[in-house]
Amino acid sequence: MNRPDPAFSLESNRRIMNLKTTIKTLAISAILTTTALPVLGQDLIARMAPVDRKVRQLDTLALQSTIERENLESPSADLYQDWDNRYAHKATELPETYRINLKNYCMPTPSRVITSQFGPRWGRQHKGLDIKVYIGDTIRAAFSGKIRVVRYEAKGYGNYVVIRHNNGLETIYGHLSKHLVRENQTVRAGDPIGLGGNTGRSTGSHLHFETRLCGVALNPALFFDFRNQDVTGDYYVFRRSTMDRESAKATAARGQKVSSYTKEEVYGGKRNTTTSAPVAVVTEAAAPAPRPANRPTGIKHHQVEAGETIYSIARKYDMPVEKLQQINGLGSSTRLRTGQMIVLQ
User: Fold this and answer.
1) What is the CA radius of gyration of the chain?
2) Ramachandran region, residue 254 (left: φ > 0; alpha: ψ -120 to 50; beta: rest)
């Protein structure tokens, strides 16, 4: 009869005891883990909360960046259905009301002198403001946006630039002597876009400045106060039902044409030595300046004939040559062309 090996029995008992101990340890660990799970879960959620906030902030910044990028690529897409470089403006349906953001602006020129206002002129509508500038003066973008048109028009704007802005407006800058931008280029408010000039249908160096909404010309005086080099407010709420009445008020308040001026007055006015206040410029409502005794009255322009010079024209109208050059933005070496219009006053 075979007897069990005592050593084998001891080894078996040891393995059984180790197994029982392992099972007890696992059971206790499971119980402790189950008990602590809600606390650990709460700690995990608490630690994740700041991360979630940061992620949300990043999402918001990314969204804002995307919106800004889309605005630069296609400004005012909610108002304009197309992007075309072939025309200066094309009127479409105006909204009943539209809020135009005027913040982050730049005055197109530091000139404070308006030489022709918005409205009826010479039997037709003048769709912008004429601002006195001299040939070579820097002209700047009024707001951020995208250059839609850079062209030359002999019988109209001359060298001109059209910018579509993120606030819904389009601005037109006419009679430039030189373009400084290209079509489809994005610009920021204040970026140089051209130089002042006397190109196209123009009788003297000036900036023809238009503001349009959906291709419809609106009085720039609704938005810009050139006399004070400022905008009219942070926002302008356009209302189709009152636009004509508000345009007339804007012209009365800040769009008066200046009939005579000096170069100092164009760029801020002479300073009074006692009060440091700018000397008032002469407007249409003020008394006219005295005329030279021999100068023909009622004549505002002279069309250059063959062989005429700026000196012969100055003698004809008994005017200082320097004044005639200044009014027309002409240099001492500028050669006149037959048919050119010279402004006399």
Assistant:
1) 37
2) alpha
